[in-house]
Amino acid sequence: MIVRPVLTKDLEEIEGFDTSFSTDCVWQMDHRIADEEVSTTFRAIRLPRAIMVETKRDNDWLAHWQNSDLLLAVEEDRVFSGYLRLEIDRRRNWGKLIHLAVIRKKRRRGYGTALIEEAKRWSKARRVRGLVAETETRNYPAISFFQKSGFSFCGFNESGFPHREIDVYFVCSLG
Description:
Oligomer: single chain
Number of domains: 1
Mean pLDDT: 91
Helix content: 10-25%
């Protein structure tokens, strides 16, 4: 397995990349407001059956890629297997993981971890304070992956994703 910068030839592969996922578990949010107290909790709940979630890419994704601070690819035996895109918020000195995806047949085999570890190494070398990742409550595979990779839950947004999905945010301090 090799982690390397994204090359121009990779862009066609990325354009057709399948980022859909299957899950039998989601994070359920319980939000309560009573008097002067606001309480929000998330808990993992099992679904009656697994669901397949199709994801959609921003139509202007190529322009965004050109403005990225870090673009990584992972490959094995010269077969493109995944990618990571990172942008640095220079005002806060934090990195934001914009995209992280691994082809379905290579998932749960260390490819995503290799991309994250290289992004951490690259960021530390540039004195970036930490990394922030965002996903949705129904993407339990991503939630589990970020937690396993040293990220901690740090917040949510009820109006971030289309179709009334809830964004959840995870942070990994590099300091």
